Amino acid sequence: MIKVKTINPTQAYILKRFNRFMQYAVLVIVGLFLFMPVFWALVSSIKQDSEYMTYPIHLFPTIPQWANYVKVFQLTNFLQVAQRTFLLGITVAILTTISSSMAGYAFARYQVPGNKRLFSIIIALLIVPGIVLLIPQFIVFARLKLTNTYWPWILGALGGSSYYIFLFRQFFLAFPKELEEAAEVDGCGPFRIYYQIFMPNAKPILATVMIFAFNGVWGDYLTPLIYLNEDKTLLGVKMVTAFVNPHGIPYQTISMAANVIYVLPLIVIFFFAQKHILKGVITTGLKG
Known about the structure:
This protein is mainly α and 288 residues long. The protein has one domain: MetI-like fold, CATH 1.10.3720.10. 70% of the residues lie in helices and 0% in strands. It contains 14 helices and no strands. Helix 1 (9-44) packs antiparallel against helix 14 and helix 11 runs antiparallel to helix 14.
């Protein structure tokens, strides 16, 4: 006969607390590891260039150089380029969200001939790296004489995104059919159902897509480098090319200060919208 060893309530409580402690310990260690690059950028942004590459490494500066942040705006038209990038990012985010949500709504709620086959093609496009399409797209826009303009971003946003269409479709599949049928009984057409019923209840996925689309413009380096000249370039390119001395040697600490300013808007946006982002990604599910 096999004897089963029982655990008294005190042992069970201690074991539960130990497991909880280990879970938090692992999370804290991983969090500190991920925070190290951010911490290094912060402390490096207030160092002198002579302290940046010293060995052994001095973690903190001898005298904090807060003037590095002032020099970011003195050495380049940072605010002007940031405003240009921000406006383009907001425009692309709004247009991408509208076009992708409409396509996702159609795929989720209307069963027409060829619906699943067309959606399969969109899913297949997810495995195609964007870098593969960069040169063919550039040739097309160059022949249309749309280089050194922002039309490549606008037209791309109007076409939607395969990944965002997938997210919207999966989210809209979870909506009860009865809600749509009740709206049809009240005389609502497809478009009215879309923007008066589905869209107001899709705030998590809307926030997720808009933030991701905005970040795609704000953090992009390669696309503006190829399409735009110096006078129209975006912030991602400006961050790489602006902070160098006349001999072409970069100002390391000023670049770090610029990087801190560069990522600050994204951190603020994520801080206030993290619940919507997590809910939007999780609730998409794998239905259908």
